[in-house]
Specification:
- With 298 residues, the chain is of the alpha/beta class.
- It has two domains: 162 residues, 3-Layer(aba) Sandwich (Rossmann fold), CATH 3.40.50; 121 residues, N-(1-d-carboxylethyl)-l-norvaline Dehydrogenase, domain 2, CATH 1.10.1040.
- Helix content is 53%, strand content 12%.
- The chain has twelve helices and eight strands.
- It has an eight-stranded mixed beta sheet, with helices on both faces.
- Helix 2 links the parallel strand 2 and strand 3.
- Helix 7 packs across helix 8 and helix 10 runs antiparallel to helix 11.
- 35% of the residues are buried.
- Bound molecules: NADPH dihydro-nicotinamide-adenine-dinucleotide phosphate (NDP).
- NADPH dihydro-nicotinamide-adenine-dinucleotide phosphate (NDP) binds next to helix 1 and helix 4.
Length: 298
């Protein structure tokens, strides 16, 4: 019996939330962080602070890494691997890296782990620290399925796991692609708010409706499966929302932004996509024809 022990390395807001979530469920948790003092709250809640990173990794089969980037993992684990040759500390261990980086960095790290006898699972957490372990929290994973399956019950405590496949880069790719949508939407919200406040309209008169525009997008453009089918088929039948019409609107947003004296980079980037479609002679097709431009094929 007993719940499986877990180690958490990296106690930023995310790592602390993960360790707290494991502790809440009764798992024995060992923690380590480069800067001392970040574990204090967790120790009060029952975590064991390892004296060294090597001791932290040695304490559990599963080590969850929550660091700024993948370089931080090497900064911490290279000395761990060096401390025991052949890497006895890492041999047979499972490293689950939930830090942000590029898909290639995740693939390289899987190779690095394999050279030290460890299994490597990549993860991308899709919610901020306060939401970790709560309803709606979900995490993309990729890497060896059998290893993931063994630790799935523990990883589930961080958020609902969404396993994508064996390629260690996949989880990172999905994390980035979702943040591509998220970050662009956030910038557009702030840009649009600047546009209305420049005209003397209070932000509160605008933002609640703007957020509805975001949540109405599925109703306006159709569900993801249908959109995916059309994009993959290269079908962009133009009728109601042509690239030319949408591009004209994009141009109006640039002008209004210029007139208001606010930043024009974002609307100009959007306008450039439509210009490209129109220049390619595809202005009478549906706005989704931008996909062909963005893919770099036209
Ligand atoms: P922080 O930047 O606050 O924490 C980073 C952690 O990495 C700290 O423990 C820090 O140690 C450690 N670290 C950084 N560089 C090194 C290094 N060279 N050597 C040793 N340790 C190092 O990040 P968060 O906790 O906010 O996020 C962690 C990861 O999760 C990031 O990759 C982030 O992109 C991702 N993420 C974050 C979300 C969020 O809302 N915060 C949401 C989803 C994902 P020290 O304390 O010593 O500085």
């Amino acid at each position: 019996g007993g719940l499986s022990p877990g180690t958490v390395v990296g106690l930023g807001p995310m790592g602390r939330a993960m360790a707290a979530s494991l502790l809440r469920s009764g798992h024995p948790v060992t923690v380590w962080n480069r800067t001392e003092g970040r574990a204090d709250d967790l120790i009060v809640r029952g975590a064991t602070l390892a004296p060294t990173a090597t001791a932290a990794v040695a304490a559990s089969e599963l080590t969850i890494l929550s660091l700024t980037d993948y370089q931080a993992m090497y900064d911490i684990l290279d000395p761990v691997a060096e401390s025991s040759r052949p890497s006895a500390v890492l041999a047979g261990k499972v490293l689950v890296n939930l830090s942000s980086d590029t898909p290639d960095a995740s693939r390289d790290a899987a190779g690095w782990a394999a050279r030290h006898g460890a299994s490597f699972v990549t993860g991308g957490v899709m919610v901020p620290a306060p939401a970790v372990g709560g309803p709606g929290a979900h995490v993309f994973y990729s890497g060896p399925r059998a290893v993931f399956d063994i630790h799935e019950p523990t990883l589930r405590l961080i958020g609902e796991p969404r396993y994508l496949g064996e390629d260690p880069g996949l989880a990172q790719l999905f994390y980035q692609a979702h943040l591509d949508v998220f970050l662009t939407a956030l910038s557009s919200l702030l840009h649009a708010t600047a546009l209305v406040t420049a005209a003397g309209v209070p932000a509160a008169d605008f933002l609640p409706g703007a957020l509805n525009t975001l949540t109405d997008i599925p109703t306006m453009i159709g569900d993801g499966w249908d959109l995916a089918r059309r994009l993959e088929a290269g079908e962009h039948p133009g009728d109601l929302s042509t690239a030319r019409m949408m591009g004209a609107t994009a141009n109006h947003i640039v002008w209004t932004s210029e007139k208001a004296g606010i930043d024009t980079q974002l609307p100009k980037a959007v306008k450039a996509h439509y210009d490209q479609a129109v220049t390619a002679g595809r202005g009478t097709e549906n706005w989704t024809v931008l996909y062909e431009m963005l893919k770099g094929c036209d």
